[in-house]
Amino acid sequence: MDRELILDVRAVSYRYPETARDALAGVSLVARAGEVHAVLGPNGSGKTTLLRVALGLARPATGSAAILGQPAAAWSRRDLARIVGVVPQREDHLFPQRVRETVLLGRYPYLSVWGAERPEDQAAVDRALARCDVSSLATRWIWTLSGGEYQRVRLARALAQEPKLLVLDEPTASLDVRHEMELFELVRALADQDGLAVVLITHHVNLAARFADRVLLLADGRTAGDGAPADVLTRETVERVFAWPVSIASFDGRPQMIPLRKQEEHS
Ligand code: ADP
Ligand code: MG
Asked: Got the DSSP string for 3-34?
């Protein structure tokens, strides 16, 4: 039986107003329940723009973006928030907040207009805190958290929405190896155990190759590769897209990139 089709982005193109070239041209991304998709590519290659189009925040000039069979832009934001949990690249915390209050914000698409939270909202918050191993931080102020704790709390807020699709934009930027591995392991487990579809933007080519089912490699808004990590992350492709010489090794059946020093180029 085919897994549920969650995100269906087909051949989208998008150009920001008053710019000379397409930020996206003919890019597709199809994600089903239980799959982890990594989106890779140099800075400015269109990764965040692809997410914006996928979530209906930017309307593609050509192509289509659908979530659960309905055009992404046609969803009310509130209904969409019950299906898609997003951990954005950056955000500002304007209000002093404790961890539990922050995660409870993930319940807003379920709350009544009066905003009173019900026992099931509290239960969803507790589950999300536990899943992300931040229950013990519940009463801490957000600004007292370490980078790794903060990212897990933001993921918990997205999980409190009880989404079918989880979208993360560079969630492990500036985390140390343990914290980045913990986050990738957790994301993988959410796909394997909870059946979430995951779209993850990252600059960690090697972790993407280890954890993702498929990688989408973008270059200048175009698809430079799309498929299983070993099929996409070849030396030729990676060198061309990132404009740097590399060697590709294999670990656990997955490609691993080793960037070369300048004098090693001809080895
Ligand atoms: P990435 O996330 O891969 O770094 P983006 O999707 O943010 O790339 O950007 C893709 C391209 O679109 C870049 O050339 C960027 O400068 C341009 N771009 C992004 N946002 C805007 C905007 N609001 N207005 C004009 N151009 C933009
Ligand atoms: Mg980006």
From this structure: PPEEEEEEEEEE--TT-SS-SEEEEEEEEETT
Structure tokens at 99: 């961890």
Please give the Cα distance from 194 to 241 (Å, whole number): 34
Residues in contact with ligand 1 (CB, 6 Å cut-off): 16, 19, 23, 41, 43-49
Q: Which contacts (CB < 8 Å, 24+ apart) does range 129-137 have?
A: 129/99, 129/100, 129/103, 129/156, 131/156, 131/159, 131/186, 131/190, 132/156, 132/159, 132/186, 133/182, 134/99, 137/99
CA trace torsion 41, 214, 161, 143 (10° rounding): -40
Residue 146 in tokens: 């370490």
Return the closest-CA partner of residue 208 out of 140, 147, 257: 257
Q: CA nearest 172: which of 200, 197, 134, 194? A: 200
**If DSSP codes are grouped into helix, strand and coil, which group holds residue 76?**
coil
Sign of the four-CA dihedral 230, 236, 238, 240:
negative
Whose atoms come closest to the Cα of 88: which ligand? 2
Ligand 2 center to residue 206 CA distance, Å?
A: 18
pTM > 0.85: yes or no: yes
20-65 pLDDT, tens digit each: 999 999 999 999 999 999 999 999 999 999 999 999 999 999 999 9
